[in-house]
Design brief:
Elements lengths: L1 H42 L2 H19 L2 H13 L5 E3 L2 E3 L2 H19 L8 H15 L7 H24 L2 H28 L7 E2 L3 E2 L8 H21 L12 H25 L2 H18 L3 H14 L1 H4 L5 H13 L14 H19 L10 H8 L14 H34 L2 H20 L10 H14 L13 H11 L1
Antiparallel strand pairs: 1-2, 3-4
Length: 507
């Protein structure tokens, strides 16, 4: 027996020595890599060192918990344009590479765990139809770079919508909501500072003593639009979440209270920033979105809607003096100039903005007349504009100041119908969820409903899918799709008041 064991031991020695050699080599390589990294950090500029260190830590965190990328994305969306990247002549905000890395990490995690889920939703089908209609309009596109940039936005929208709906669960959606509210709170505070401290270009001055708030959006209108998108989310939390605890989710009452306080602070700050932006379209959109939230909260929505309408008409002499005259005069001027030959209208400081918007509406209609079914091509509005512009209005401004006309011009009847189908599918789902669910799913439904109400209203005078705000829409809508079906049974563990409301609404 002994000689045999000795022989076996002698045969194992080479493999043991090889193992030790490999181990020593791996340790040496690791030490060399750490030494090289330390030398690079010591000699590299501070900016590059910070970027490399943060990127390494962030990459490891994303591999472990990819959902962290969504939390960061929620904060980066309004601030992404502060620093832009140029790739192949195309300007990218920080949100685009962050989105790509996050999506790749989530897909890698699903592949590693072999967890695949199919997303069956009318909203997702409508999104795919919209992307198809926009891709069809490429047949008319002259500037393919501009077309690819715009089409990529909606592809990103669909990918983010799907990945949030598949991977984000209720606990994670709470953290995502908190990140969205923190970003809105920061933007609101920045706008208040700009308004009071007169920080901004001279063209934004109001009454000789204030400055129109614009945040990090360079213009007041998209800034007001961003705040108005988040106002329904903050409103839904403030109205429905005080004193409510969901067993198994945020177990500590202080965490629920903190979220409620964050919702209250962000709502007050964002509403102040919205007013200080002096954006008429954003204000009207915010009122429409908040009105939808209140209607969905009511047990009998349509009688309340009728009562509010009658009260507004009867009390008009009382509340109309409280509305700044400039808000109402802009609407009156717009309707007064409709149908007139804008080339013959005398331009002055009072009507310049109104005539400019109407001139772009007419240019969009002329583009639509050229190619009614598939439009002039996605992303081609600034390219085609010089050939259809009115005299004295040669600056394309990037869009038609009416997203429905803009979509009609670039993607034709098919594109507009596909876009409207997406809005209808999302609004229908949000309304059903808001009326038939309770607890946290109802908060997400109310937030989505109010956000879409604002988008539908504000889009009549502006284009809100700029500076990554389409990603904001995808995040909120994706959280709605990740929630339970409105036909689910009554959830367990819900507080008594919410169970009573749920039974009453279903009955």
């Amino acid at each position: 027996m002994f000689p045999l064991s000795a022989a076996a031991t002698s045969q194992d020695r080479p493999s043991h020595a090889l193992y030790r050699a490999n181990r020593i080599m791996r340790s040496a390589l690791a030490m060399a890599a750490l030494a090289s990294l330390g030398l690079f950090l010591a000699r590299a500029p501070l900016t590059w060192a910070v970027v490399l260190l943060a990127g390494t830590i962030g990459g490891l965190l994303l591999l472990i918990r990819p959902v962290i990328g969504l939390y960061v994305l929620a904060i980066v969306i309004p601030f992404g344009s502060v620093r832009t990247l140029s790739v192949g002549g195309v300007s990218l905000s920080l949100a685009q590479p962050l989105l790509a890395i996050t999506l790749a990490a989530m897909v890698a995690q699903m592949l590693a765990h072999r967890r695949f889920a199919a997303l069956r939703s009318g909203v997702m089908l409508a999104t795919m139809g919209l992307v198809g209609a926009l891709a069809l309009s490429l047949l008319q596109a002259g500037d393919l770079r501009a077309a690819a940039t715009e089409l990529l936005k909606w592809i990103e929208f669909g990918l983010l919508l799907a990945i949030v709906a598949i991977t984000v669960r209720e606990q994670q959606s709470r953290w995502l909501v908190a990140a969205l509210l923190l970003a809105g709170l920061a933007e609101g505070l920045l706008g208040i500072h700009q308004f009071l401290r007169q920080v901004g270009p001279p063209g934004f001055m109001l009454f000789g003593r204030y400055m129109r708030a614009y945040g990090t959006f360079a213009q007041p209108n998209p800034y007001g639009g961003y705040l108005s998108m988040l106002l329904p989310l903050a409103c839904a939390i403030v109205v429905t979440r005080w004193g409510v605890r969901d067993p198994g989710q945020l177990r500590s009452l202080w965490a629920d209270r903190l979220l409620w306080l964050l919702g209250l602070a962000s709502f007050a700050t964002m509403f102040a920033g919205l007013i200080m932006s002096w954006s008429r379209g954003a204000l009207l959109g915010a009122l429409a979105g908040l009105a939808l939230v209140l209607l969905a909260l009511a047990r009998r929505a349509w009688p309340l809607f009728l009562a509010l309408g009658l009260a507004a008409v009867v009390l008009a002499p009382l509340w109309s003096p409280l509305v700044p005259g400039d808000y109402l005069s802009r609407l009156d001027d717009t309707t007064a100039y409709l149908g007139q030959d804008l080339a013959l209208v005398e331009i002055d400081d009072a009507n310049f903005a109104v005539i400019e918007r109407l001139a772009h509406w007419e240019a969009a209609w002329r583009m639509f007349s050229r190619s009614p079914w598939i439009g002039v091509g996605i992303g081609q509005y600034p390219v085609v504009y010089p050939s259809v512009s009115l005299a004295r209005w040669q600056d394309p401004l990037g869009h038609a100041h009416n997203y429905y006309l803009h979509m009609l011009a670039e993607a034709g009847i098919l594109g507009l119908l596909a876009y409207l189908s997406l809005l209808i599918a999302a609004m229908s789902l949000a309304w059903r969820q808001a009326r038939r669910t309770v607890g946290w799913p109802r908060v997400l439904a109310l937030a989505t409903l109010g956000m879409l109400g604002h988008v539908i209203t504000h889009s009549m005078v502006d284009n809100l899918y700029v500076q990554d705000m389409y990603l904001l829409v995808a995040l909120v809508l994706g959280m709605l799709l990740s929630g339970p079906s409105p036909k689910q049974p009554e959830p367990a563990g819900t507080d008594c008041l919410e169970r009573h409301k749920y039974r009453s609404e279903v009955a």
